[in-house]
Amino acid sequence: MIQLPCPWCGSRNVSEFRHVGEAVARPDPASASPEQWRGYLYLRRNTRGSTEETWYHSAGCRRYFRLVRDTVSNQTQPPGARRHD
Questions:
Q1: Which end of the chain is more exposed for a tag (fewer CB within 10 A), N or C?
Q2: Distance of CA 59 to CAs 14, 16, 35, 44, 64, Å?
Q3: Is-above-0.90 flag for pTM?
Q4: Closest CA to 18 of 62, 75, 77
Q5: What span, in angstroms and rounded, lies between the C-alpha atoms of 29 and 36?
Q6: How far apart are CA 71 and CA 37, in angstroms?
Q7: What is the pLDDT along the chain (85 residues), one digit of tens a residue?
Q8: What is the Cα–Cα distance from 22 to 44, expressed in whole angstroms?
Q9: How far, in Å, CA of 51 to CA of 34, rounded?
């Protein structure tokens, strides 16, 4: 069973969460080109190894949060933790 650490509720089963996706910076709406928006909306690195992701605790506190998850082992770390790229 995979456990995710919610910053507000503690460790919970992954079935309580919804994966939002890889955490990416949003472009400035006033100056972003169509290519920048396309990249923001559709393109992801989909790396093997550590990646920073956004999750939504849908069956708990209903808050969004980020964490660093290893996509091979599913081990998690707090956001901002050292990534192994």
A1: N
A2: 10, 5, 36, 26, 12
A3: no
A4: 62
A5: 10
A6: 26
A7: 899 999 999 999 999 999 999 999 999 999 999 999 999 999 988 889 999 999 999 999 999 999 999 999 999 998 765 555 4
A8: 7
A9: 26
